[in-house]
Design brief:
mainly alpha, 5 helices, elongated
Length: about 100
């Protein structure tokens, strides 16, 4: 079940429909509701674009595979700055004298 509390133009709802999921969209703007309803009626016209977009996001290797091979796993992996900020915050805590 896909719930989109800010459905807007209905992109998430159309994607859910294309992927075969049940969905609920909530939108305050009547204009957006009408537009989203029209898109949902014509969702088949968007299937090709959706498949092209999905192809761009294909997972080639898992996080664990990249980590094991020493490949890039994220910008904070070797960044000690975050650790220092945390340690700095921890040192600030001291018991009252």
């Amino acid at each position: 079940m896909v719930i989109d509390p800010f459905a807007g133009s209905g992109t998430t709802l159309v994607a859910a429909k294309i992927l075969g999921h049940n969905f609920i969209g909530i939108e305050i703007s009547e204009e957006c509701v009408r537009y989203a309803e029209e898109r949902l009626k014509k969702y088949k016209e968007e299937i090709e674009d959706a498949h092209e977009e999905l192809a761009k996001h294909k997972v080639e290797k898992t996080f664990e595979e990249r980590k094991r091979r020493g490949e890039f796993v994220g910008k904070y992996r070797s960044n000690s700055k975050c650790k220092k900020i945390f340690e700095f915050g921890a040192h600030q805590r001291s018991s009252p004298k």
